[in-house]
């Protein structure tokens, strides 16, 4: 069976209902995808960074409980694990507040020995963040060199719209690095201001090896 590698951010979500904390659990786009795959017995490997603190221990225990391989995770000493406060409304929609204190050197875990049958997933703002961009590209170029399949999910949300023009060239570079781009209508509307599938395809396809809408 193919191995799957996910590269992404990890946060400890503390969930509030009626202004009272009701749960705490590990979260993150790539992490959530890997957990779902692991639960159907796909071998998954997580590439991320987590503080060497109590919140980080909580996250690591969750990953191990869900059988994610954690050997490629960097546990950093300087800084703290990222925390998100999620305030639920009456419809259980969440409003988030984030608290992040990362070290200067980012994403310093070991580089996997990728193979031709591997699948590598990346996306969200983690795939655009200039603080980790050089190291992220090391992973992606190493995976491409070995013939791994790379899948990019932009997951570009409305709170990044103020930086859209600055981030769009990086998003398009990610399109070119990926073998497949998996995006939602919301993603492409936020990136290009387009809602017609035909218009989206015409705008995005020149940057892509494969496009799935």
Question: Topology of this protein?
Answer:
Elements: E1 4-7, E2 11-17, E3 20-27, H1 29-38, E4 44-47, E5 49-51, H2 54-65, E6 74-76, E7 80-88, E8 94-101, E9 119-123, H3 133-145, E10 149-153, H4 164-177, E11 180-182, H5 185-192, H6 197-204, E12 211-212
Parallel strand pairs: 1-4, 1-9, 2-7, 5-6, 9-10, 10-11, 11-12
Antiparallel strand pairs: 2-3, 7-8
Taking pLDDT < 50 over at least 5 consecutive residues as the criterion, the unreliable ranges are none
Q: State the share of residues found in helices, binned by percent.
A: 25-40%
Q: Largest sheet, if any?
A: 6 strands, parallel
Order of neighbouring strands in the sheet with most strands = 4-1-9-10-11-12
Mind telling me the C-alpha Rg? 17 Å
Assembly type of the shown chains?
A: single chain
Mean pLDDT: 92
**H/E element order:** EEEHEEHEEEEHEHEHHE
The global form is globular
Number of helices: 6
Alpha-carbon distance between the two ends: 27 Å
Strand content: 25-35%
């Amino acid at each position: 069976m193919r191995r799957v590698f996910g590269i992404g951010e990890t946060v400890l979500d503390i969930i509030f209902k009626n202004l009272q904390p009701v749960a705490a659990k590990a979260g993150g786009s790539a992490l959530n995808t890997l957990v779902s795959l692991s639960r159907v017995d796909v071998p998954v490997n997580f590439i991320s960074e987590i503080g060497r603190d109590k919140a980080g221990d909580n996250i690591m225990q969750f990953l191990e409980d869900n059988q994610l391989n954690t050997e490629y995770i960097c546990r950093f000493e300087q800084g703290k694990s990222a925390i998100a406060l999620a305030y639920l409304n009456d419809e259980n929609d969440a409003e988030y507040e984030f608290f992040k204190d990362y070290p200067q050197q980012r994403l310093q875990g070991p580089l996997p020995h990728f193979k031709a049958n591997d699948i590598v997933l990346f996306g969200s703002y983690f795939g655009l963040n200039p603080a980790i961009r050089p190291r992220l590209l090391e992973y992606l170029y190493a995976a491409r060199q070995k013939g791994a399949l790379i899948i990019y999910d932009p997951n570009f949300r409305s709170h990044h719209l103020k930086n859209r023009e600055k981030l769009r060239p990086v998003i398009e570079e990610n399109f070119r690095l990926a073998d497949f781009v998996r995006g939602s209508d919301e993603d492409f509307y936020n990136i290009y201001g387009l809602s017609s599938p035909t218009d989206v395809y015409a705008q995005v396809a020149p940057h892509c090896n494969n496009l799935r809408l």
